[in-house]
Amino acid sequence: MPSPGRLANVLLQRRIPLQTRLDLLRAELGRRTRSRTAYAVRTGPGEVFLSHADYTVDWKSFAWVVADDAYPASYEGAVVLDLGAHKGYYGAHALAHGARIVVSFEPETANLELLERAAATHRARGADWRVRASAVGAERGEAELRLMAGSWAHSLHPPDSWAQWEVGTQRVPVEAMTDILREIGPLGGPLVVKINIEGEECRAVLGTPPEAWVGVSELFVEMHEWAGCSDTELEAHLAPVGFRRIPTPLERVLRLRREAAPRSDPRNAPT
Fold this sequence. Notes:
The chain is an alpha/beta fold. The chain has a domain at 73-261: Vaccinia Virus protein VP39 (Rossmann fold, 3-Layer(aba) Sandwich). The protein is 30% helix and 25% strand. The protein has eight helices and twelve strands. The chain has helices at 4-11, 18-33, 55-66, 89-96, 109-123, 177-184, 201-206, 231-238, and strands at 38-43, 46-51, 79-83, 101-105, 128-132, 135-137, 141-148, 166-176, 191-195, 218-222, 243-245, 253-258. The strands form three sheets. It has a seven-stranded mixed beta sheet with strand order 5-4-3-9-10-12-11, sandwiched between helices. The N and C termini lie far apart (59 Å).
């Protein structure tokens, strides 16, 4: 559960809509007095859900996106790829800030259930939120997802030290990053991509040719220390197609923006 200070800090942030703050307070009080399977929190046109069973992790994940502003892009009219969607807090945040389409990828069953519930409440009010029950990697196929006690830590390749928290496995489909970018490109408009895939970020980004990322306007990658590469390697991989790092106070998040197409981009060539 959040500390009293952390809870107060979030509830007093006026840039967070009042209805969202009131629902967070109701959830905190409700779980202590009359627990439910999940607690609804209004965000933009719909709701997201904090599970009772994993309340501490869900609350921190929600606050990371909404209160800490971990992914501060311009979402107005954007298409958003949410890779490693958890229960949909980032997708809802993007829609609340003007995103035109959100496509969320989440393979784990319990997370997926509340993600789909959240997306359904937004779709009922006209939002275009699409959910895919799959993991993301460099190559298409199937893989064994290792399930952890905390809902934000499920991973295809967790570090050995996590064995003590492993609670099971789940066979999941894996979609290739290159295929996803090719499919989403024709939707048009600015494309914002957020990657939080628990250690697969190096395989997914470095295993995808730089030219496949040309249609992306802004990219957020949450780095994990066991992933096998550094943020500077990801930055260098994407530099040839015009990506540049944008400073962020959150050291775990690499933020890259593609300001303009370089001369080598065939779409920028004279006709």
